[in-house]
Structures are given as structure tokens and as C-alpha cells.
Amino acid sequence: MGDALDADVIIAGAGLTGATLGLAVASAGLKPILVDPQPFDAQVAPTFDGRASAIAFSSFRQWRALGLGASLEPHAQRIEQILVTDGRGAGAAARDPGGAFLRFDAAEIAGRTPEEPGEPLGYMIENRRSRAGLAEAVTRAGLTVLAPASVAKVEFGRALAEVTLADGRVLRAPLVVGAEGRGSVARDAAGIEVQGWSYGQSGVVATVHLEHDHQGVAYEYFLPSGPFAILPLTEQRASLVWTEPTRRGEALRGARDEVFHAHLRRRFGDFLGHVEARGPRFVYPLSMQLAAQLVAPRLALLGDAAHAIHPLAGQGLNLGLKDAAALAEVLADAVRLGEDIGSLQVLERYARWRRLDNVAVSLACDGFNRLFSNHNPILRAGRGAGMALVNRLGPARRFFMQEAGGALGDLPRLLRGEAL
Ligand SMILES: Cc1cc2nc3c(=O)[nH]c(=O)nc-3n(C[C@H](O)[C@H](O)[C@H](O)COP(=O)(O)OP(=O)(O)OC[C@H]3O[C@@H](n4cnc5c(N)ncnc54)[C@H](O)[C@@H]3O)c2cc1C
Predict the structure, then answer these.
(1) Is 287 exposed, middle or buried (0-12, 13-18, 19+ CB in 10 A)?
(2) Which of 19, 85, 102, 224 is most buried by a 10 A CB count?
(3) Ligand 1 centre and the CA of 324: distance in Å?
(4) Which residues, in sequence order, are CB contacts of 114 under 8 Å at separation 6+?
(5) Which of 19, 252, 244, 247 is nearest to 135 (CA)?
(6) Exposed, middle or buried: residue 114 (CB in 10 Å: 0-12, 13-18, 19+)?
(7) For 103-154, how does the pLDDT look when each residue is reduced to its tens digit (9 = 90+)?
(8) Residues with CB under 6 A from ligand 1
(9) Which candidate, 41, 5, 35, places its Cα nearest to that of 150?
């Protein structure tokens, strides 16, 4: 057994959600230790994670409140509009925005003037930029990060949890947070079961340079093979999430550049001029996974360790960031009241706060994917009528925009942009 290191919270996983929680609890005076097999400098390389994420404006407010504003703002592309179509080729919505199935416009949810443009629908940020911003803030705050190191075993005692790392070191704290993604060791150690299924689809992710400006518009085309999203990035670029059945996704990853570009042109069209893929392509197998519980004595689950969902609505990370804000607030309040932060009594407050939203969003994304990723003409007619109705009803559209932006419900302080 190695030396015991003590902390208030041991966070297994220093990814986007784990690092955010680390900063949040530290801002409330708690001492976290972050553990991750990936050193921070490897996590920020362009080859580590080619994804860009749609960050809801409330999630972005939290990052600003935690001191990441200056490092992220230059790389954050405002999303001004989202156009959604069903089955029609790419570009159809751009040529005829009124004919889009669903049209969300930031101008509708904010009292905007030219001087005060108000909140956008969200921001697109490359994950490597968010990781770099978080790594910088974590270092600046002087948090202890053990990386490379991985959690191998977790035992839950009456007063403390004991974490054994793969290299034999042992850490103890009143609370362990499982933020290690889908294969959470801490979750398994607590015997928490997961339910889920594979979609038989993969998300092919690539960054493209555009000849014409995207003007902050995000496009989502629901095609029978799966959704195809063109998401605006800074520097006249876009991030593509191109969903295909798994075998075709793998073929696209391996395709020669000319072949990939030929497929891309057919899918994308020419409404944004010449489009050129830059950098590596990434392929992510898509599945859904929900943990049966969010907490157990001395354990809380966060992010993909608790709920991994289909990316079609860009909500997975946002759910995890909401988890981080809620958990940090529950822990900060418990410390002020002199409570044991690892007790089930305290952790149940976090579970009650987050359970419904996590399950509702996960199932909604699953349902949307089933409804749209098929050729069934009856479903197609039904979804067309439903979406057209939502599009015509201003209040329904505004509800969806506020919900996706994370502006509704009982928001944790950090998501309102306030300190803990
Ligand atoms: C194609 C695609 C596009 C997406 N787009 C969006 C989007 O636009 N918006 C959005 O909100 N979400 C999006 N998502 C979802 C989002 O990427 C995930 O929800 C998010 O990355 C989850 O973050 P996490 O920190 O919980 O887990 P992860 O990112 O999986 O991080 C887990 C961390 O734990 C570490 N770890 C693993 N094992 C151990 C161990 N034993 N001990 C210690 N550490 C360990 C890993 O190294 C890693 O750093 C998308 C997903 C996909 C696949």
C-alpha cells in the first residue's frame, strides 16, 4: 500500500465534467484531488478529441463564473439560429429558411438591440479548447491532479471512501465522485447497475473549412441513416457530426481523402461554397447508457458515468455540466451547515435535483433518434406535421430554446452565473 493522500473529494476523471466540478468545489473552499490516466497536455492535443460541443448559454455562464471566460471567449462561436429539416438534402433549409421544419432564432428569446445583442442559443467550442481552458484554470487554482494515474479500486467505509490507484497509491476522502465516463470504475464498485443499448450507429466527426460565412447558423438534417449536423465554428469553419450505420462510419473513417470529399460534397451540397475537411476524422460509436442511481453512500456520479446519450441534440455534456453545478452547490451548502458531505442524506439532495432532467433529456434524445432514423412513410408524415405545428407556435418554440439553453427550472447558482 502506498502513501495515503487526503482530500475532501476524490474526483475520478479529469475530463470536461470532472475538471469543472473540481474548480467548482474548490471555489467553495473544499479540497478536491483529480485523477485521470491522461495527462492534461495530451488531452489538449488536436488529435485527442476532434469533437466540438454545443454549450448551452447557462453552461457557458458557469465556465465564466469559474474564471474560464478570457480563455474560452476567443474560441466560442455564437449560435444565432438552428435550422432543422427532415430528409431534405443539405442546403435546402439554407435556401429556404421558412421551409425548414423547425427554426430556432436567438433573436426571439432575448430583448436584443444592436448595442446589446443578448444571449445566443448557445456556443460552439472545440473540446480541445475547453479542455485547455479547464487545464489552465485547474493549474492556476493550484488543484492536485494525479495524471497519468487511474482509479483501479474503490471501497466505501463508514466514514471514508478509499481509492486505490493502478500504481498502488491509496487516497482517502469522505466522498468519491465518479466522472470517468461510460466505464466508471467507481459506479461498478458501488454495485450501481446501468441500462442501455447500442444504436448500431457511429458519429463521424470532422472539421471543415467553408468558402462562405456560416453566420452562426447550425443545420441539422434528419436523414434515414441518422442525423447530419453542420455546426458553426470560429474562423469560418464548421464541425460535422455525420451519423451513419456503424459499418459505413468505419468505412468513412478509412476512406481516402478524395473519396471522403466526394461523399461529403454529395451530403453537404454547395450552399456554403467549397468545403474542405481539415485535420483527422474521428469515429464515435453511439450508445445510450443510464445508471440506475446517481448516488450511493460516499459516492456521486457525474456526466457520462451517470448518463451517456445520443448526441443529436448536443445535450450530453450540458447535462454533465448541470450535474457539476448542482453537486457543487449541494456540497457547499452542506459544508456551511457542518454536515458530512459523503452521507446519503446530503447526496440524495443532488440526486433529487438532477434525476428527472437527466432521465427526461436522455429518453427524449433516444425517442427523437428512433423517430427520425428510418424510412417509415407513416412516421415521416406524423413527425412532419408535429414539427410544423411546433414551428408555427411561437411559445412552444421559445420553450424548446429556453430548455435547450438550460434557462428553465430550478437552476443552480453557477448556471445563473453566480459564485457558490
Ligand atoms: C460525436 C459526439 C458529439 C457530441 N456533441 C456534443 C455537443 O455538441 N454538446 C454536448 O453537450 N455533448 C455532446 N456530446 C457528448 C459529450 O461529448 C459527453 O457527454 C462528454 O464528453 C462527457 O464528459 P465526461 O467528462 O462525463 O466524460 P468523458 O469525456 O468520457 O471523460 C472521462 C474522463 O475520465 C478518465 N478516466 C477513464 N477511466 C478512468 C479511471 N479508471 N480513473 C480515472 N479517470 C479515468 C478519462 O481519461 C477521461 O478524461 C457528444 C458526443 C459525441 C460522441
Answers:
(1) middle
(2) 19
(3) 13
(4) none
(5) 19
(6) exposed
(7) 888 887 665 555 556 788 899 999 999 999 999 999 999 999 999 999 999 9
(8) 12-18, 35-38, 51, 53-54, 150-151, 179-181, 185, 203, 205, 241, 284, 303-304, 311, 314-318, 320
(9) 35
C-alpha atoms less than 13 angstroms from C-alpha of 398 in its C-beta half-sphere: 7
Cell of 96: 429556404
Query: Rounded CA gap, 139 and 162, in Å?
Result: 25
Q: Show the cell assigned to 275.
A: 468545403
User: Which atom of ligand 1 sits closest to the CA of residue 182?
Assistant: 30
Cell of 25: 468545489
Q: Return the closest-CA partner of residue 314 out of 385, 220, 251.
A: 220
Residue identified by cell 460565412 is 213
pLDDT computed for residue 381 by the predictor:
66
Q: 333: which residues sit within 8 A by CB, 6+ positions away?
A: none
Q: What are phi and psi of 31, to 5 degrees?
A: -105, 110
Q: Are 189 and 183 in contact (CB under 8 A)?
A: no
Place of cell 454547395: 270
Global pTM reads 0.92
